Amino acid sequence: MNALIDTGHSDMTDWIDCGTVDQLPLRGARVIRHAGGSIAVFRPAQGLPAAINNACPHKAGPLADGMVHGRSVSCPLHGRVFDLDSGRAAAPDRDCVTRYPVAVTVDGRVLVRLRPLSPAAPAGAAIMPNPVMPSPVMPGPVTTLTEAAE
After folding, report:
1. Residue limits of the Rieske domain (predicted)?
2. Which pTM does this prediction carry?
3. CA geometry: angle at 40 spanning 39 and 42, to 5°?
């Protein structure tokens, strides 16, 4: 499930620093707003953080406002459940949400890459050596980082 995400460590321009793991709300999410929409970065009670598109494909409900249970989140509008590691909706639903690579540095910083994972790519977060981050840490397309309700 969790795999080392090799970012190349030389080009970190499309990775967003979301703060430390402890700064993410437990069983909650933070939202990264960028030119292409928004990404919800979740901190489940077990395991490492995960990031998915913040909009439910059914009615665009804000998934960051949903209830986190295990490694899943329920859409706050209609209760559709999405697995944080695969992006797939629980049966009988067949939707899926876009996943984004997440890495946790050895000093506990959570990084999210703005390029989505392909459906066959491994999901979840990984521990990786502390990368050299370019300055500024948050590149141009990102406008805000906000906390969602637990």
Report:
1. 15-111
2. 0.75
3. 145
